[in-house]
UniProtKB/TrEMBL annotation, chain A:
Residues 56-240 form the Metallo-beta-lactamase domain. GO terms for biological process: antibiotic catabolic process. Coiled coil: none annotated. InterPro entries: Metallo-B-lactamas, NDM-1-like, RibonucZ/Hydroxyglut_hydro, SoxH-rel_PQQ_2. This is Quinoprotein relay system zinc metallohydrolase 2. SMART domains: Lactamase_B (SM00849). It comes from Fulvimarina manganoxydans.
Automatic annotation (TrEMBL), chain B:
Residues 198-284 form the Sulphur oxidation protein SoxZ domain. InterPro entries: Fuse-rel_SoxYZ, Ig-like_fold, Ig_E-set, SoxY, SoxY_sf, SoxZ_dom. Pfam families: SoxY, SoxZ. This is Sulfur-oxidizing protein SoxY. It comes from Fulvimarina manganoxydans.
Amino acid sequence: MINAWTAVVLAFVLWYDAAIALAADRVASFYSEVVPGVFVHEGEVAETSAANRGDIANIGFVVGDDAVAVIDTGGSVTEAQEALAAIRAITDKPIAYAINTHMHPDHLFGNQVFKAAGARIIGHERLAPALAARAESYRASMREQLGPELADAVTITPPDEGVSAERTLDLGNRPLVLKAWDTAHTDNDLTVFDERTRTLFAGDLVFMKHLPVLDGSLLGWLRQTPMLEAIPAERVVPGHGPATAPWPDAIEPQTAYLEALARDVRVAIASGQRLSETAETAAKAEAEAFELSEDYRRRNATAAYAELEWE
Amino acid sequence: MKTLPSGMGRNLAARWGRPSQVALVAAALSFGVTSVSLAASEPSPEEAAAAADSAWTDLKFDLFGDRKLVEGTDVVSLEAPKRAADPAIVPMTIRLDPEKDIRKVTLVIDENPSPVAGTFTLAKGAGVTELSTRVRVNAYTDVHVVAEAADGTLYVTKQFVKAAGGCAAPAAKDPEVAAREMGRMKLRDFGEVEGAADRREAQLQIRHPNNSGLQKDQVTLLYIPAHFITDLDVERGGQPVFSMTGGISISEDPNFRFTYEGDSAEPFHVKAVDTEGKVFEETFPVTAS
């Protein structure tokens, strides 16, 4: 017969094993390998909160013969630490690069973790000035959204190198093509193309499920969409939404929304409708086909109006 | 800036004093109180704004001394979003009773670092009875509009706006375009206001960063100097329509939509001066629409 003490110890051992297994599970399942050598972590389609630790964007990494490159570093230090542990459980090759697809906190608040792990941080040549100009307001807004504990752990870490047009990184028999875009989602969008598997990491130049967010130029985004579509990728990793989707079909709903936004705002401006009314109504139906439309559609319409009234 | 009330400087200093006071209190609290209980005791934004009503008491005194402000009339009204879509571009529409001969309008965003967004002087008989602009809003705040009639009576109205971070937000989404186009102006005439044959409506847009100076240069760790339009004069046919002395709370690419009286035969002339002494001046020929 088992005495009480043994039962307690046994219960503890079972609980401890389960906890370890759970943690290991979490590490093992953080990234999934979408195609050989390409791993993606799917962020939640949501606004940043303390509960989700800023884990709302898709982040990934690519493994070459010699080295690893991570693409975006997550929305908090804790998310990045979890990502790093997950990578280390998969490969012990050095993490040579951490690539930032653009300036938004959900994509690069984990930079410091990868920099400490030895990675060189690479972004669009305009990323450093854009981040510098916004550091104060990001610190303030992220304190609100992530909560002080998670936000204060972040040291906003700018890129070590900027890309001005195109640059190829070699991970060892595995070229990654980095392309810097003109102003679109932001003024510092950068895409990463893995030639071997024809996988395109589009950053927030491609939104799926999550309403596209305009923080750059609507006209620039629409103008460059055909160039994006022309990239000979088989699949895309969008900045938000599913881990991967077929390319270029994946971008169609976004383009439909952006075109509707430009159309509605142009009509509103031409007819003398005010900004306040236009913000309420522009591309409302198209926005509602996405999640988080109530959070972003008025802001997008405001930005579009302020841009298009100078046409 | 010269026509801004003398109390502005003091107020500005008082505002800048606040963050350090907050920091001190927070530091003192952090010794004995966990962040959890601190968060729990934090008032809601509405409560905080209500408690901060003293901001307006001080501002009112700085701007108008102990003059009486008439509340609760239809002489002046303010249309503003309850929750701003973008805190850097918050549309405000001020409507004035055409019967009251209002000559001066002061737009005050109580909780902004520089609360007076703009002071508008309206010319006698110019017909400016509706005026819209866009402002930055830095915190949950009351927005006050004070309208002064020709007889010196002051009328006030207010609205609470939920927005945060508009002043610290960087000016331009595309700084290269902003720098290239600074000073460009557009003037649109919308024609007759429906139901008011003697009243027309126009909109003036000026490309200018109207930089609030609250962003820190991350290399020098100094605040980027404010660069904004201080004075604006709008005339029509050689006669003044309105003028504005503006602060840093007016949004990037300042935008003013206003009514005016008379037919559209006379051209508009606009002159704007910024903090660097740059003068932007343009005459807009008549384009009846």
